[in-house]
Structures are given as C-alpha cells and as structure tokens.
Design goal:
The structure holds two protein chains of two kinds.
Chain A lengths: L9 H22 L5 H23 L7 H18 L3 H11 L1
Chain B lengths: L2 H7 L15 H30 L9 H31 L4 H31 L14 H32 L5 H26 L5
The chains are: A mainly alpha, B mainly alpha.
C-alpha cells in the first residue's frame, strides 16, 4: 500500500532554507580568508555535502521516505563518486608532463 | 487504494505488486533519473577537477564584483525557488481549495527559475565580451578553463530551463485538473535536484576560481 509520508511543516523548510543561506555565506567568507588551496577545497566540499544532505533529507523528503529507498539509491551513488576519485594520481602525472 | 487493490478491482488479478519503496512509480522513476543525473554532474565536476590539477597554467579570473556577487545572488534565487516549490507541493497535497494556491506558487517558482537563467546568461555574455569562450582564455592561461566552465554551467542552465518548461506544463495541467498532487511533487523533486547540483557548482567552479 502506498504510504503517505507526512513531512515537516513550512516552518521547518524555512529554517532549512535559512541554514542553507548561512552555509553559502560561510563558503564565500572562507573563499576570501586566504586559506591554502587544499584547505579551502576541503572546506567548500564539506559545506557543499552538508547542503546536499539538508536538501536531500528535507527538501527532497528522503528522510521521511522508507529506508529501503534511501539504501537503494544513496550508497550506490557514493560508490560511483568514490570510484571516480581513483584517478587523481593520473592528474598529477599529467601536470608533471606539462612542467 | 493501493496499486495491487486497484488491479484486483479492475479484474487484472494481483499482477501489480506494491512498491517495496512505498512510493508511486513515477516518483521512483524520478529518483532513478536523479541518481543517474547526479552521476553525470559528478563526472563532469570530477573531469573539471582532473583537468585543473593537470594544468600548470590554470587561471583564477573571477573578481568578487561582478562574478562572485552575481553567483551569490543566483544561489539565493535558486534556494528561494526551492522553498516556493515546497509551498506549491504542500498546497497541492492539501487539495480542495488550495489548488489555485499551488498553481500560484508554481508560477512564482518558474519566474525565479527564469530570473536565475537571465542572471546566468548575462554573466555569460559579459565573459564573452571579455574574450572568454569554451576554447579561448584572454588571460593567457589554460583554455580548458573555458571548456569546463561553460560546459558545466551550460548543462546546469539547460536543466534549469527544462525544469521551468516542465513546471509550466504541470501547473497548467494541474489547474485544469488533468494532473494531481503527485505530479507536482515529482516535478518538485527534479527542481530540488537542480538546486542541489548548484550547491556543488557554485563553490567548486565559481569560488575555487575567485581571484
């Protein structure tokens, strides 16, 4: 039987929206904080993942769906992203060829 | 009434089973599309990162004014459009007299999507005027900057425009009673995904290329 999955109210959505705006502000502030490139990248990626998590769980309602949906979709996607990241050493090799 | 009960009532027997995910088929298909499209954007962003790491002459051309500031405004517009889409979905699901309210929120969301696209295109044309293109770099560095920047932002812009069209079609059909709240919800899923992709594009493509 199709389940209706009551989600949060508009107040919660507005709270998440404000949180996302704050994270965007933090990202811009970090960009101009003269951080080393690697540190800035890690910080921006971490904040982007938090934003994505909030968007997925609340705006896209995944938190209120059956767990089977979450476990069927998300781990496979994370696996794909991890596998893409096996090629960074080749990018560094490419850089050394150009220098 | 579940799909299984409906199939029995219509005389097909129990040939249609309930979804193990507890959602309608169109919603599941939209989720599957989102996962596939997320992998596509992930591959594009990874490709951009790979080429950037592999290029010793990568430039960082974006000044705070106008590019980063414009990007911030675009991000606020897109995030707000996700909020208005949520309002549209909630009004649609409430049903009854809130159908018109839902259509109004869908229109507002579509307008915000058009505003985002207009800001984006204005930025593109400013870059073209400065000599940037998918294959040229007026700062003398790697031309791969243009290829990756216009490729990634162009694909995202295409998704935004397709979302605006789909949203408009759904709003018109929902107003006439031809579609129901689940169609609005499914369209909302797509729109939130477009917003979610921008949450990665803005920091990785804009902020990481800030001067």
């Amino acid at each position: 039987m199709m389940e209706s999955t009551p989600g949060p109210g508009m107040r919660s959505y507005v709270a998440v929206w404000l949180g996302l705006l704050l994270i965007v502000g933090a990202e811009v502030a970090l960009t101009y904080a003269r951080l080393p490139t690697g540190t800035l990248l890690a910080a921006l990626l971490a904040l982007a993942l938090v934003e994505a998590g909030l968007g997925l769980m609340y705006f896209m309602h995944l938190r209120y769906e059956r767990r089977t949906l979450f476990w069927s979709l998300i781990p496979a996607l994370i696996f794909v992203f991890i596998m893409m990241n096996q090629f960074w050493s080749d990018a560094h090799r490419l850089r050394s060829l150009h220098q | 009434m579940s799909e299984s009960e409906m199939s029995v009532a219509l005389g097909y027997g129990g040939i249609v089973e309930d979804s193990p995910f507890g959602i309608e088929s169109k919603k599941l298909v939209m989720w599957l599309f989102i996962v596939a499209d997320a992998a596509t954007f992930g591959a594009l962003l990874f490709g951009y990162g790979y080429l950037r790491v592999g290029s010793p002459n990568w430039v960082r051309p974006f000044a705070f004014v106008p590019t980063i500031l414009n990007g911030m405004v675009m991000t606020v517009v897109l995030l707000t459009s996700s909020l208005t889409m949520l309002a549209a979905v909630r009004a649609a699901q409430a049903g009854g007299g809130r159908r018109r309210e839902s259509v109004r929120w869908l229109v507002v969301t579509a307008v915000l999507g058009i505003v985002f696209a207009a800001l984006h295109l204005r930025e593109w044309f400013n870059l073209f005027a400065e000599g940037w293109s998918p294959s040229t770099n007026p700062m003398g560095g790697s031309v791969l900057f243009g290829g990756t920047f216009f490729g990634i932002t162009g694909l995202h812009l295409l998704h935004v425009l397709c979302g605006v069209v789909a949203m408009t079609v759904v709003a018109l059909a929902f107003r006439r009673g031809r579609l129901d709240a689940s169609h609005v919800e499914t369209t909302g899923l797509y729109w939130h995904f477009v917003d979610l992709v921008w949450m990665f594009v803005f920091p990785l493509v804009y902020l990481m290329n800030a001067r």
